[in-house]
Amino acid sequence: MNWKAKLYKQNKLCVLVIVSLLLFNCKNDTRKQLDSRVTNLPFYKEASFTPHWLESGSEAQKTFHQIPAFSLTNQEGETITEATFKDKIYVTDFFFTTCPGICPKMTANMNILQQEFKTDAEILLLSHSVTPEIDSVSVLKSYAENKGIESNKWHLVTGERSQIYDLGRNHYFVEEDLGETKTNDDFLHTENFVLIDKNRQIRGIYNGLNKTAVQQLIADIKTLQLEN
Known about the structure:
The chain is of the alpha/beta class. It has six helices and seven strands, in the order ααβββαβαβαββα. A hairpin with a 5-residue loop joins strand 6 and strand 7. It has two domains: 34 residues; 169 residues, Glutaredoxin, CATH 3.40.30.10. The termini are far apart. It holds the Pfam family SCO1-SenC. Keywords: Copper.
């Protein structure tokens, strides 16, 4: 073998080593990104989102803050209640179909969750319209079709404005304006996604505009599935 052939062989080997290292690092980065931060997720009960570490099945956990009963209507005209989410883990947010700002990106990121858990019947998505007087069933249906939303996986709901705002502010705690007293006349607008477990208890809050936060949410959902 002449010196040119040897040099070519050495260069080819170096390239293969570098490519292998890059692939290994990329794989490890993805793995780290998809790992949950903890073995068991904390519980939350108020707007400051102070974590509470409770033993599953304990009396403290059983009596902890829980999303109350509700009754809303989805894009198919079906009544959606807390019973819809019996034995389900779900992610919820608040949006409106005519929103020109953050909502399209939130919907796109929620769609990432839909695709990730498309075949997993244990995981559901719930988006509340904060302009229910505009977002009728037919409007939500059209929006769902335009955004590729699957009705058996992702419920877009409308209903009484007072109920939706009460759920958002007093039970999901999606707004970040701590200490400010608000009424139904004050518009509810937030980019937060909230993770709810099978007991209708809050287990996490995430920035719905941030793809890294969405990947963390995916990891935390998988952690929650192991817990249940």
